[in-house]
Design a protein that fits this description.
344 residues; alpha/beta; Quinone Oxidoreductase, Chain A, domain 1; Rossmann fold; 2 domains; seven-stranded mixed β-sheet; six-stranded parallel β-sheet; 26% strand; globular; binds zinc ion; ADH-like_C
Length: 344
Amino acid sequence: MLALQKVRPGAGVELRAIETLNSAPPGEVLVRVHSAGICGTDLHIAEWTPGYEPMESAMPVTLGHEFSGTIADVGDGVNRSLIGTRVTARPSTTCGKCAACLAGDEDNCSNRKGVGIGRNGAFTEFVCVPYGNCHALPDELDMDIAALTEPMTVCEEAVTTADVRPGQKILVIGPGFIGQGIAVLARAKGADVVVMGRDDAPRLTALQAIGFEHLVDTTKVPMDEALSKLGPFDAIIEAAGVPALVQATIPHLRKRGIFTVVGIHSRPAEIDLVSLVRMHQQIRGSYRAPPQAWDKVIAFLAANQSMMSRLISHRLPLADAMSGFKAAHERLATKVMLQVGGAA
Ligand SMILES: [Zn+2]
Ligand SMILES: [Zn+2]
């Protein structure tokens, strides 16, 4: 079967033929992949930005951690009646053996492995995942939309961390898929949402198409001027990973406002803490969502399919994965969905 793999440390990914998987180990299921999205993490891995060195021991490893598919076979200990179930899966797998796992604190597992990062992922026809990581999909949920579950759980967690409430004014920095998803979920909570980007016309246009009116492109208008008009904000959620934008936007945060960092920053940010103290503001970080968030997000996706479908900018066969990576890298894409196909 064809697989998009990280073969060696350094820049690049390879589309190569690998042996077809046809069974799952004990406790796991074999999923025939239908759709798998390319995300920022995949781009970082392809470019080999610092922080992914631990992947080296898993190479060659198939990438792809945002996916949907159908259970094609089950390993020992998993009920065979699950074959045919349409699922998505939490990519983060835990070991069940370390001190944290044994204490029931799986979130702090010291041997965590990500599907599509530390173990084989979904940019291929078949992937194995622990059955406990799977979430069943409602019949009416389109498989491409279902593959948005993982990134949308990151967005859901960000909106929860930021404590977004009805009637609040929220600024989302960065119109990539995570920023877009945060905007969508914050709006669904009744907030008034502004999204800011820089040189991001295709991605801001996608937001406009789903009804967002307050969009700021700082290549066209000075940032402070635009934010002064639209703010101040009860919460700012940062999903751009640009350190300088933290301090540059905090002056537009209300007293007692919450600044939530979601982007991965390659450098430290300099922040005026005196003003932060006097304004009684908070800075919070937000990362992986708890398992309970998954079914909530799946229900949201099922109820909002036509809107979410407009955030998938490219649908490509696996064989065209390289051009999908290129479009995502050039920020032309909102979300590239690789349609591996096969599932009913
Ligand atoms: Zn991702
Ligand atoms: Zn563990």
